[in-house]
């Protein structure tokens, strides 16, 4: 009787340039064009058997990640270094694994997480950027980051985020708990940072779409609260572009040893270091 092969669960951190993919999730109409498809193809080649993986939070087309977390199972006899080097060798440009680590079977990239964090980067200057044009959002009119921050505090806590939910969102309900939200200026950059237990489809981009008119003075600070209370997507602003949005952190309190680097993306770390 043949002995069953031992299956090991692996967790990894992924960074990717969303401008090069059709979103995170594999799609029937765009086979091979998603981040998930690229990773599964590369991992399957290393494992010599089909690999299916799970992520902490799906991102849509154009959205980036500096610390997306995934897990997958395999009976292949590989160590962490072999997985990391082998998968990276077989990945296309614009996506890579930063680390891989063995983990207990009860770990789940999505369900073990208690919060996710995003950063939305706005280049606020009269001239559109020549560099990073698909990795930041450009806003030509001057923005008051302090007013944007003040307005954003209306979103703290457990709320019905229907007004900030895309019409084709498939979540079971619109209630989410906002754990932290801030807006700050760093030179010509305005950075929106949000942390919640989970997010609705286009939620962060729709929040940005409300805060930007407040920042430029065409809407009052109170408008953010009014939009939230309306529970009506039609009462909110436009959906801000996806190019400025980055998935940057996941919190796993039961797995404190995971080496998740929440300081990304790399240019943001550089900005912080330059100010110190």
Fold and architecture overview:
The protein is α+β, with helices and mostly antiparallel strands. It has two domains: 8-103, Alpha-Beta Plaits (2-Layer Sandwich), CATH 3.30.70.580; 115-251, Alpha-Beta Plaits. The protein contains six helices and ten strands, in the order E-H-E-E-H-E-E-E-H-E-E-E-H-H-E-H. It has helices spanning 35-47, 80-89, 145-152, 203-216, 223-230, 266-275, and strands spanning 8-16, 53-55, 64-74, 95-103, 115-124, 137-139, 157-160, 175-186, 189-196, 245-251. Strands 1, 2, 3, 4, 5, 6, 7, 8, 9 and 10 form a ten-stranded mixed β-sheet that branches. A hairpin with an 8-residue loop joins strand 2 (53-55) and strand 3. Helix 1 crosses helix 2 and helix 3 crosses helix 4. The radius of gyration is 20 Å and the shape is globular. The model has no long low-confidence stretch (mean pLDDT 93).
Tag the structure with descriptive keywords.
276 residues, Alpha-Beta Plaits, globular, single chain, 6 helices, alpha+beta
């Amino acid at each position: 009787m043949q002995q069953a092969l031992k299956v090991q669960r692996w967790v990894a951190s992924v960074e990717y340039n969303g401008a090069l993919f059709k979103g995170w999730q594999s799609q029937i109409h765009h086979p091979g064009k998603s981040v998930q498809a690229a990773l599964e193809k590369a991992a399957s080649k290393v494992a010599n058997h089909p690999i299916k993986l799970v992520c902490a939070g799906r991102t849509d087309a154009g959205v980036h990640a500096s610390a997306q977390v995934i897990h997958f199972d395999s009976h292949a006899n590989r160590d962490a270094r072999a997985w990391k080097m082998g998968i990276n060798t077989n990945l296309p440009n614009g996506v890579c694994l930063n680390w891989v680590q063995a983990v207990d079977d009860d770990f789940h990239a999505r369900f073990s997480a208690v919060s996710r964090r995003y950063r939305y980067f706005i280049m606020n200057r009269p001239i559109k950027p020549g560099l990073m044009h698909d990795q930041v959002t450009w806003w030509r009119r001057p923005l008051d980051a302090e007013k944007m921050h003040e307005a954003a505090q209306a979103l703290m806590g457990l709320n019905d985020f229907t007004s900030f939910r895309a019409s084709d969102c498939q979540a079971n309900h619109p209630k989410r708990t906002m754990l932290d939200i801030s807006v700050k200026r760093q030179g010509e950059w305005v950075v929106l940072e949000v942390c919640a237990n989970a997010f609705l489809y286009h939620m962060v981009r729709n929040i940005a779409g409300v805060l930007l008119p407040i920042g430029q003075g065409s809407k009052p600070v109170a408008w953010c609260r009014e939009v939230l209370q309306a529970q009506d997507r039609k009462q909110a602003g436009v959906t801000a572009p996806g190019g400025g949005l980055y998935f940057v952190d996941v919190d796993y309190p039961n797995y404190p040893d995971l080496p998740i680097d929440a300081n990304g993306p790399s240019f943001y770390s550089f900005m912080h270091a330059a100010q110190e």
